[in-house]
Every structure is written in C-alpha cells, then in structure tokens.
Amino acid sequence: MKLIILICVLFGKFAFAESNPKEIIKKNIEVSLLKSLYAEKVILTGETKSGSKKTKEYSMWRKRIGSTLYSKTMSRFHKPAKIAGQGVLMIESGNSNAGNDIRIYLPAFKRVRRIERSMQSGSFMGTAFSYSDLSVQELNDYKYSYEKLSVCPVHKNKKCHVIVSKPVSKEVRERRGYAYTKTWIQSDSYITDKLEGYNGKDKKVKVIDFLNTTEVKKNRWLATKIKAQDLKSNRWALYEIKEYKTDTPIDESIFSENNLKNPL
After folding, report:
1. What is the mean pLDDT of residues 236-260?
2. Is residue 9 very low, low, confident or very high in pLDDT (cuts 50, 70, 90)?
3. What is the pLDDT of residue 264?
4. Which residue, among 193, 130, 178, 187, has the nearest Cα to 159 in the 3D structure?
5. Which candidate, 242, 250, 255, places its Cα nearest to that of 35?
6. How far apart are CA 130 and CA 199, in angstroms?
7. Cis ω on the peptide bond leading into residue 107 (within 30° of 0)?
8. pLDDT score of 205
9. How confident is the model at residue 8 (pLDDT cuts 50, 70, 90)?
10. pLDDT tens by residue, 127-137
11. Alpha carbon of 53 to those of 41, 108, 200: distances in Å?
C-alpha cells in the first residue's frame, strides 16, 4: 500500500511538472531572488580571441526592484589597471519591447554609453558571457515546454527538470541571442544546473554550467561559480563571487547614472 502511495505521489509531481513548465521557471527565478547583494570581490576569468587568459576583478551591488522578479545591478571594475573605474549599470525592466536598461561608463572617454536592445546579446566585458546571460528573463517573453526529468548534467547526484524556452517575438530573440534555450533545473531546490543556447538551425551555440550555488538563507540561493562556453568563438569564461554579503541596506543612489560616472 505504501509503495502504491509513493508511486502516486511521484507520478503526481511529474504530471504537475510536465503541465507547468512556466511555474518551474518562475520558481527557478524566485529562489535566486535576494533583497540585496553586495559582492566586494568578483573574479571574471576568460579566454581572449588570441587564446590568452585574462582576469578581471570588480565589485557588485544588486538590489531587488520592489516585489518584482527583477533586480538592478551596479558593477565597478578595479583590475586590470587599464579598465579600473569602468562601470556597468543594469536595470532589469521586465519589458519585452524596451529590453533592460544597460549603461556602461568608460573613464578614458568620460562618457556613458547605453547598450541598445539589439546589442544586449553581445559580449559582457569581452567574455563568453553576454549581458543577457547575466540578467533574468521576462516570464511572458517565452513559450515553455517540458522535455523530461533526467539526471542533472553538472551535479549528477541530482535530478533535473529540463525546460525548453522559445522567445515569443523576434525582438526577444534578438535581445537574448538564442532561438531557444534548454535549462536543467534541480527538482528539489529549483536552482539552475545547466543552460544551453541554440540558434535557428538547432545548433548549440552556448553552454553555461552552474558549478557552485550556495544557499545563503532558507530557500534562497546564490550562484557563486558559473562557467560559460561560447561555441561560436570557441572561448570560455569563469565567473566567481569570492566575498559577499546578502540582505544588507544599499542606497538607491548606487544605481544612478551619476554614481556610474562619479562613484560614491
């Protein structure tokens, strides 16, 4: 009798997952939402077009926008010396037409440059990550389908829901840079295990592995080590958060264009 009940429970969970892929994606976003995050030291290591390895170091401030699924992020680069002072301000809008508000400050030119929607699938600071890879997708910008429940490809001791996300418009596809993505989401915690991006010819163009994700509070997780591989350029990048604090007060002025140009 107990076996029958267990089978029914497991079947019920699978049936729910199969019929509600959008809810799984929503949970995946929710478990990564923090009231705020201050990362004093973020290391971004990547391979350049010439094949050499480059390391960048920066600080990052992130704050949730009200009760939404979105956040605003300020990144300030410190190393190497030639990019010291460069800043990136990203405000996730949840607006599929406008895209995210992304601005870059270049000290050498003493000016702020806006990253237009069509360019947000471009390289983040010359790495294998794109600006869109580092932002949250708008739930209603995609159609979702449930592919299967399988062993997670990165953390093989876990089971993962595999969800396919297809953009609902060419504008969304342009901004994200993929015709569709496959996301492996761990079935117990709903954190991301792996993401693959594909082009319109069903060719895999990007692989992102979530190597380490830390539970910073109950049911709230922070990805602290992520590796991206750009299969088009045959480059890779590693993103690591080394030192951080969560849910600490961050003043709104941090996320202003004035602070982007003149750090507080």
Report:
1. 96
2. very low
3. 65
4. 187
5. 250
6. 15
7. no
8. 98
9. very low
10. 999 999 999 98
11. 19, 24, 31
Which among 192, 175, 102, 164 has a CA at the least distance from the CA of 138?
Answer: 175
Q: What is the pTM of this model?
A: 0.90
Q: What is the DSSP string of the chain?
A: -HHHHHHHHHHHHHHHHHH-HHHHHHHHHHTT--SEEEEEEEEEEEE-TTS-EEEEEEEEEEEE-TTSS-EEEEEEEEESGGGTT-EEEEE----TTT--EEEEEETTTTEEEEE-GGGTTSBSTTSS-BTGGGSPPPGGGEEEEEEEEEE-SSSTTSEEEEEEEEESSHHHHHHH--SEEEEEEETTT--EEEEEEE-TTS-EEEEEEEEEEEEEETTEEEEEEEEEEETTTTEEEEEEEEEEEES----GGGGSHHHHHS--
Is 2-261 in CATH node 3.30.830.10? Answer: no
Question: From CA 169, how far away is CA 186, in angstroms rounded?
Answer: 28
Inter-axis angle of helices 21-30 and 2-19, nearest 10:
90
Instruction: Measure CA of the first residue to CA of the last residue in the chain; give whole Å.
Output: 65
Report how far Cα 106 is from the mean position of its chain's Cα atoms.
Answer: 23
